[in-house]
Write a structure and sequence with these properties.
It is built from one helix and three strands. It is of the alpha+beta class and 60 residues long. Helix content is 30%, strand content 50%.
Length: 60
């Protein structure tokens, strides 16, 4: 998942938090690795946040 701008990053983080609640009954959790990336949009370089999201079994 990638997000550009503070509002989009905020929504992405909230979506990840909500998604964790949906997969908990399946004994899963999310592992999230954020990273800054440079993108070229409309001939302009922009910085975005990329969230690599993976599921993993819950530690009991």
């Amino acid at each position: 998942m990638q997000a550009i701008g503070p509002a989009a990053v905020n929504q992405a983080v909230k979506a990840i938090a909500i998604a964790r609640g949906y997969i908990t009954p399946d004994n899963l959790d999310l592992f999230v690795k954020p990273a800054f990336v440079k993108l070229e949009l409309e001939n302009e370089e922009r910085t975005a946040l990329r969230f690599t999201v993976k599921s993993q079994p819950l530690n009991s």
